[in-house]
Amino acid sequence: MEIRVLKYFLTVAEIGNITKAANSMHLTQPTLSRQLQDLEKELGQKLFKRGSKNITLTPEGMILRKRAEEIINLVEKTENEFFSFKDEIAGDIYIGAGETKTIKLIADIMKLLQKEYPKIKFHIVSGDSEDLSEKLDKGILDFCIFIEPFICDKYNHIKLNKKDTWGILLRKDDPLAKKKNVKIEDIIDLPILISRQAIKKTFENNPIINWFGDNLEKLKIAGTYNLLYNAAIMTENKIGYALGLDRLIKDTLDSPLTFRPLNPKLEVSVSIAWKKNQIFSKPAKLFLEELQKIR
Length: 295
Known about the structure:
nine-stranded mixed beta sheet; 10 helices
């Protein structure tokens, strides 16, 4: 399986038309078709459903698309790492991040490094801990910012000196907004939108589950999310009250939403992690050195 052919496959999967894909890559349509047919023979699976004008991926094709993207990303990351071995400090740093105000600390380090080494580039990948852990394990990411709860034993990590506060995102015109904070009894009968990571019982010490205790089973969960911005739109449209972290959605004069912290107060730690025995590129090593100064 050649990298070149995987790139062909991804281009066709994105465009959905072999002729247009061939033109975009300056190939003839028969050449591209033959390459795809050879790939299907090599894998022993049909990758495309061919229609009169467009083609779509089969379930097997969707699996290959995910793997091909990971392979291409890893190849490009490896090439950039070897490029960074030159005397000049240049290259890419890939950071996975959950939604947290603590990203400000990371942005400060980025700004510091870019000022001294303008050829360093940063790439931020958003997601929840499950998605980011998978990418970190595969070497696609150099670092990951994790918010409690997460399993840290498998990684080297630094606990950052800032914490996030849990609370409820709600509309300003809601009666509950008159309160300075919210208790369990205030929300137990309300439709709640909750982070899918926050209610996972696979973590030994999950602060959200511990905070709710036996009341967790009584919650009326209207939906789950992995990015609070999407949950904020649902809250604005009165679908539910979003249980999330403070300062992720700005409480401005023109915003219909506001935030109220939980009572008793619930704060969670934020850590940045990397694989054990990780061999870093020069830019990533410099980034880690700056991180260690703020621990």
